[in-house]
Protein backbone atom coordinates (compact mmCIF):
# COMPACT_ATOMS: atom_id res chain seq x y z
CA UNK A 1 0.00 0.00 0.00
CA UNK A 2 1.15 3.49 -0.80
CA UNK A 3 1.97 5.34 2.44
CA UNK A 4 0.81 8.64 0.97
CA UNK A 5 -2.85 8.33 0.11
CA UNK A 6 -4.03 11.03 -2.25
CA UNK A 7 -7.54 12.34 -1.98
CA UNK A 8 -9.65 11.41 -4.99
CA UNK A 9 -9.76 14.19 -7.56
CA UNK A 10 -13.28 15.29 -8.27
CA UNK A 11 -13.99 15.58 -11.98
CA UNK A 12 -16.63 17.65 -13.66
CA UNK A 13 -19.96 15.86 -13.46
CA UNK A 14 -21.28 17.62 -16.57
CA UNK A 15 -18.33 18.32 -18.87
CA UNK A 16 -20.45 19.09 -21.96
CA UNK A 17 -22.55 21.61 -20.05
CA UNK A 18 -19.38 23.15 -18.59
CA UNK A 19 -17.91 23.38 -22.09
CA UNK A 20 -20.91 25.27 -23.49
CA UNK A 21 -21.15 27.40 -20.35
CA UNK A 22 -17.64 28.67 -21.08
CA UNK A 23 -17.80 28.53 -24.90
CA UNK A 24 -20.23 31.38 -25.55
CA UNK A 25 -18.61 33.62 -22.93
CA UNK A 26 -15.17 33.04 -24.46
CA UNK A 27 -16.52 33.37 -28.00
CA UNK A 28 -18.17 36.74 -27.31
CA UNK A 29 -15.08 38.11 -25.57
CA UNK A 30 -12.65 36.70 -28.17
CA UNK A 31 -14.70 37.93 -31.11
CA UNK A 32 -14.99 41.41 -29.62
CA UNK A 33 -11.26 41.61 -28.87
CA UNK A 34 -10.02 40.09 -32.14
CA UNK A 35 -12.65 41.49 -34.52
CA UNK A 36 -10.83 44.77 -35.01
CA UNK A 37 -8.04 42.79 -36.70
CA UNK A 38 -10.36 41.30 -39.30
CA UNK A 39 -13.35 43.65 -39.75
CA UNK A 40 -13.70 47.36 -40.36
CA UNK A 41 -17.47 47.27 -39.93
CA UNK A 42 -18.79 48.25 -36.52
CA UNK A 43 -22.19 46.77 -37.45
CA UNK A 44 -20.73 43.28 -37.95
CA UNK A 45 -18.78 43.52 -34.70
CA UNK A 46 -21.86 44.73 -32.82
CA UNK A 47 -24.25 42.12 -34.23
CA UNK A 48 -21.97 39.10 -33.84
CA UNK A 49 -20.71 40.06 -30.37
CA UNK A 50 -24.21 40.77 -29.05
CA UNK A 51 -25.51 37.57 -30.67
CA UNK A 52 -22.80 35.52 -28.93
CA UNK A 53 -23.44 37.30 -25.61
CA UNK A 54 -27.18 36.66 -26.02
CA UNK A 55 -26.54 32.97 -26.66
CA UNK A 56 -24.38 32.93 -23.53
CA UNK A 57 -27.16 34.61 -21.54
CA UNK A 58 -29.71 32.07 -22.73
CA UNK A 59 -27.47 29.03 -22.14
CA UNK A 60 -26.56 30.17 -18.63
CA UNK A 61 -30.10 31.14 -17.65
CA UNK A 62 -31.89 28.12 -19.09
CA UNK A 63 -29.39 25.27 -19.26
CA UNK A 64 -26.14 25.53 -17.32
CA UNK A 65 -27.73 27.23 -14.30
CA UNK A 66 -30.12 24.31 -13.89
CA UNK A 67 -27.57 21.59 -14.50
CA UNK A 68 -24.44 22.98 -12.82
CA UNK A 69 -25.93 24.67 -9.73
CA UNK A 70 -29.57 23.52 -9.68
CA UNK A 71 -30.98 27.04 -9.91
CA UNK A 72 -33.32 28.81 -12.32
CA UNK A 73 -34.73 32.32 -12.37
CA UNK A 74 -37.01 34.39 -14.53
CA UNK A 75 -38.83 37.67 -14.39
CA UNK A 76 -42.52 38.23 -15.04
CA UNK A 77 -44.75 41.27 -15.27
CA UNK A 78 -47.83 40.86 -13.08
CA UNK A 79 -51.32 42.26 -13.73
CA UNK A 80 -50.38 45.56 -12.07
CA UNK A 81 -47.47 46.01 -14.47
CA UNK A 82 -44.87 45.33 -11.78
CA UNK A 83 -41.77 43.26 -12.36
CA UNK A 84 -41.76 40.08 -10.25
CA UNK A 85 -38.72 37.83 -9.83
CA UNK A 86 -39.41 34.09 -9.80
CA UNK A 87 -36.94 31.54 -8.47
CA UNK A 88 -36.71 27.79 -8.73
CA UNK A 89 -34.19 25.43 -7.19
CA UNK A 90 -33.69 21.76 -6.66
CA UNK A 91 -34.65 20.33 -3.30
CA UNK A 92 -32.07 20.79 -0.56
CA UNK A 93 -30.83 17.22 -0.71
CA UNK A 94 -30.16 17.49 -4.44
CA UNK A 95 -28.49 20.90 -4.04
CA UNK A 96 -26.16 19.42 -1.41
CA UNK A 97 -25.09 16.72 -3.91
CA UNK A 98 -24.19 19.18 -6.69
CA UNK A 99 -20.68 18.76 -8.04
CA UNK A 100 -18.33 21.29 -6.42
CA UNK A 101 -16.17 21.70 -9.54
CA UNK A 102 -19.23 22.37 -11.71
CA UNK A 103 -20.48 24.93 -9.21
CA UNK A 104 -17.07 26.58 -8.93
CA UNK A 105 -16.79 26.88 -12.72
CA UNK A 106 -20.31 28.28 -12.98
CA UNK A 107 -19.86 31.06 -10.41
CA UNK A 108 -16.29 32.06 -11.29
CA UNK A 109 -16.95 32.32 -15.02
CA UNK A 110 -20.12 34.28 -14.34
CA UNK A 111 -18.20 36.90 -12.34
CA UNK A 112 -15.01 36.89 -14.41
CA UNK A 113 -16.93 37.48 -17.63
CA UNK A 114 -18.61 40.56 -16.16
CA UNK A 115 -15.23 41.79 -14.90
CA UNK A 116 -13.74 41.29 -18.38
CA UNK A 117 -16.55 43.36 -19.95
CA UNK A 118 -15.94 46.12 -17.39
CA UNK A 119 -12.23 46.19 -18.30
CA UNK A 120 -13.07 46.26 -22.01
CA UNK A 121 -15.52 49.09 -21.34
CA UNK A 122 -12.82 51.09 -19.58
CA UNK A 123 -10.52 50.60 -22.59
CA UNK A 124 -13.31 51.79 -24.91
CA UNK A 125 -13.78 54.93 -22.82
CA UNK A 126 -10.03 55.60 -22.67
CA UNK A 127 -9.78 55.22 -26.46
CA UNK A 128 -12.85 57.49 -26.96
CA UNK A 129 -14.79 54.77 -28.78
CA UNK A 130 -18.36 55.52 -27.72
CA UNK A 131 -19.84 53.09 -30.23
CA UNK A 132 -17.85 50.20 -28.72
CA UNK A 133 -19.06 51.26 -25.28
CA UNK A 134 -22.53 50.38 -26.57
CA UNK A 135 -21.43 46.82 -27.43
CA UNK A 136 -19.77 46.43 -24.05
CA UNK A 137 -22.82 47.92 -22.32
CA UNK A 138 -25.18 45.39 -23.87
CA UNK A 139 -22.87 42.46 -23.08
CA UNK A 140 -22.25 43.69 -19.53
CA UNK A 141 -25.99 44.13 -18.97
CA UNK A 142 -26.63 40.52 -19.99
CA UNK A 143 -23.83 39.29 -17.71
CA UNK A 144 -25.05 41.33 -14.76
CA UNK A 145 -28.64 40.18 -15.29
CA UNK A 146 -27.49 36.57 -14.86
CA UNK A 147 -25.36 37.46 -11.84
CA UNK A 148 -28.25 39.23 -10.14
CA UNK A 149 -30.76 36.53 -11.07
CA UNK A 150 -28.66 33.61 -9.88
CA UNK A 151 -27.45 35.40 -6.74
CA UNK A 152 -31.04 36.20 -5.75
CA UNK A 153 -32.05 32.63 -6.60
CA UNK A 154 -29.26 31.20 -4.42
CA UNK A 155 -30.30 33.45 -1.52
CA UNK A 156 -33.92 32.37 -2.00
CA UNK A 157 -32.88 28.69 -1.93
CA UNK A 158 -30.95 29.27 1.34
CA UNK A 159 -33.97 31.07 2.80
CA UNK A 160 -36.22 28.13 1.86
CA UNK A 161 -33.76 25.76 3.53
CA UNK A 162 -33.85 27.81 6.74
CA UNK A 163 -37.65 27.91 6.68
CA UNK A 164 -37.81 24.15 6.11
CA UNK A 165 -35.41 23.53 9.00
CA UNK A 166 -37.39 25.83 11.29
CA UNK A 167 -40.68 24.16 10.35
CA UNK A 168 -39.19 20.70 10.89
CA UNK A 169 -37.79 21.60 14.29
CA UNK A 170 -41.04 23.29 15.32
CA UNK A 171 -43.19 20.36 14.22
CA UNK A 172 -40.94 17.84 15.98
CA UNK A 173 -40.93 19.94 19.14
CA UNK A 174 -44.70 20.30 19.11
CA UNK A 175 -45.23 16.57 18.45
CA UNK A 176 -42.84 15.79 21.33
CA UNK A 177 -44.80 18.14 23.60
CA UNK A 178 -48.10 16.62 22.50
CA UNK A 179 -46.89 13.11 23.16
CA UNK A 180 -45.49 14.15 26.56
CA UNK A 181 -48.76 15.71 27.63
CA UNK A 182 -50.91 12.92 26.19
CA UNK A 183 -49.14 10.45 28.48
CA UNK A 184 -50.08 12.47 31.58
Shape: globular
- Which segments are poorly predicted (pLDDT under 50) over 5 or more consecutive residues? none
Structural class: mainly alpha
Strand content: 5-15%
In spatial order, strands of the major sheet run 1-2
- Characterize the quaternary organization of these chains: single chain
Order of helices and strands: HHEEHHH
What is the β-strand count?
Answer: 2
Biggest sheet layout = 2 strands, antiparallel
Average pLDDT rating: 81
- Helical stretch count? 5
Summarize the structure in words.
The chain is mostly helical and 184 residues long. It has one domain (38-173). It contains five helices and two strands. It has helices at 15-38, 42-69, 92-96, 100-126, 130-183, and strands spanning 71-77, 83-89. Strands 1-2 form a two-stranded antiparallel sheet. It is globular. The termini are far apart. Belongs to the TVP23 family. Pfam families: DUF846 (PF05832).
